[in-house]
Amino acid sequence: MPPEHTAQRHERVRRQHSDELAQDYVEAIHELREETGVARVVDLTKIFGVSHVSVIRALARLEKRGLVSRCPDEGIVLTEEGTEWAIASAARHTLVVRFLCGIGVSEAQANADAEGIEHHLSTESLKAIKQFLKNNPQH
Fold this sequence. Notes:
- The structure is a single chain.
- This protein is mainly alpha-helical.
- It is built from six helices and two strands.
- It has two domains: 3-79, Winged helix-like DNA-binding domain superfamily/Winged helix DNA-binding domain (Arc Repressor Mutant, subunit A, Orthogonal Bundle); 84-135, Diphtheria Toxin Repressor, domain 2.
- The chain is 76% helix and 6% strand.
- Strand 1 and strand 2 (75-78) form a beta hairpin.
């Protein structure tokens, strides 16, 4: 395989990992703001089990992408685009959990597995899962 193809493949994987992290963060921020009214760095360190510095770096990347802003009075706030990402990410997670539970996976395991799966399924696969669940309402 020519080097440019390898480089392109690795770039795509890095971009996917970056999007995965961004989706997890905006989803967590959205949930925190819905549940408690505020999302703070300390909350995210607990959720993700990472250092304060790691959260600050992740938030800086999210700010650069236009997904969040940090306000002294309001904590971490999602932009309109960040909110859209959070809602879409939560919907993908719920869809994957429903599917996994429908095929016999325990809810706890389905939630754990969905954390990775939800980021890597294609639009085609997500549509097929949605259609499967629609055609099989018992799932």
